[in-house]
Design a protein that fits this description.
Number of helices: 10
Helix content: 25-40%
GO molecular function, one term: ATP hydrolysis activity
Distance between the termini: 32 Å
Shape: globular
Strand order of the largest sheet: 6-7-8-3-9-10
Strand content: 15-25%
Radius of gyration: 20 Å
CATH class of one domain: Alpha Beta
Pfam family, one: ABC_tran
Protein name: Phospholipid/cholesterol/gamma-HCH transport system ATP-binding protein
InterPro entries: AAA+_ATPase (IPR003593), ABC_transporter-like_ATP-bd (IPR003439), ABC_transporter-like_CS (IPR017871), P-loop_NTPase (IPR027417)
Structural class: alpha/beta
Bound molecules: adenosine-5'-triphosphate
Number of strands: 10
Largest sheet: 6 strands, mixed
Organism: Polynucleobacter victoriensis
CATH architecture of one domain: 3-Layer(aba) Sandwich
CATH superfamily of one domain: P-loop containing nucleotide triphosphate hydrolases
Length: 277
């Protein structure tokens, strides 16, 4: 197993997880156990791993939607788990979030979707708001689509609108939960490139929860693999491609079986069918 955070600059992380233990309810399965992660400013960091390993849970911990039972989740040096509702609201303004499938408000135009966080959280004039929204839409190539409704645009375009909305308040941290899910290969490539470019343009830090190895390795500076509640492997995409660790190999080569088993634990074939195959 890799040593935690061995390549990371711990002194300038926007988010740090330190010895985090988490389960959804007392006595329930431990999802994360003694987890240490660093998310350095300015970087794109991917969080990968098998289905149900706790990737989205990491984002929820950072956003303060759930709290660790042990350890600390630091955002800009402050423990998110210790914040009151008002402090949480203030820090969430500094976190852009692109949810799984990037759901848009279906009864609002593309323009109004991107304007929403600005209207909610700022008191800018209509004129400034218009300029800000058009700038964000321009950045994702959809300035011309401002008056369309979500039902009139493709899935790939919707994802880009959701991205423009996530960055509307110029957050220093952007979290993406499965940003590539359900996209065709071209939209997928465009979205990946936009995530990288937005990070650069905003001087932000991006956390990317995803299953898509090729796109992720193309744009991430650093990758964590979670398994069994811990960091099973970590490194730059080049480190991981060169790794001989069977766990990393299974993911990088997309093998269905390996250290991460294909079968959910249960009865043996012999017990279920009375025969071994
Ligand atoms: N609200 C909840 N209450 C109880 N258990 C939950 C809750 N949300 C998630 N879980 C469980 O916690 C585990 C981790 O879930 P999580 O969504 O973080 O996984 P993930 O790695 O993001 O999975 P996927 O890649 O399939 O989206 C899963 O086993 C899931 O069933």
């Amino acid at each position: 197993m890799a040593e935690p955070t061995k390549h990371m600059n711990q002194t300038d992380s926007i988010v740090s997880l330190k010895g985090v233990d988490f389960s959804y309810a007392p006595g329930e399965r431990t999802i994360l156990s003694g987890l240490n992660m660093e998310f350095p400013r300015g970087k794109v960091v991917a969080v990968m791993g098998g289905s149900g390993c706790g990737k989205t849970t990491v984002l929820r911990l950072i956003g303060g939607q759930v709290n660790a039972q042990q350890g600390q989740v630091l955002f800009e040096g402050q423990d998110v788990g210790q914040m009151n509702a008002q402090q949480l609201m203030a820090v969430r303004r500094r976190m852009g979030m692109l949810f799984q499938f990037g759901a848009l408000f279906t009864d609002m135009s593309v323009f109004e979707n991107v304007a929403f966080p600005l209207r909610e959280h700022t008191k800018v004039s209509e004129e400034t708001l218009r300029d800000l929204v058009l700038m964000k839409l321009n950045a994702v190539g959809l300035r011309g689509a401002r008056d369309l409704m979500p039902s009139q645009i493709s899935g790939g375009m919707a994802r880009r609108v959701a991205l423009a909305r996530a960055i509307a308040l110029d957050p220093p941290l952007i979290m993406y939960d499965e940003p590539f899910a359900g996209l065709d290969p071209i939209s997928l490539g465009i979205t990946a490139r936009l995530i990288r470019d937005m990070n650069q343009a905003l001087g932000a830090t991006s956390i990317l929860v995803t299953h898509d190895i090729p796109e992720t390795f193309e744009i991430a500076d650093y990758v964590y693999f979670i398994a069994n509640g811990k960091i099973a492997a970590e490194g730059t995409p080049d480190d991981l491609r060169a790794s001989t660790d069977p766990f990393v190999q299974q993911f990088v080569s997309a093998n269905p079986d390996g250290p991460v088993p294909f079968h959910y634990p249960g009865k043996t074939l012999l017990e279920d069918f009375g025969a071994s195959v």
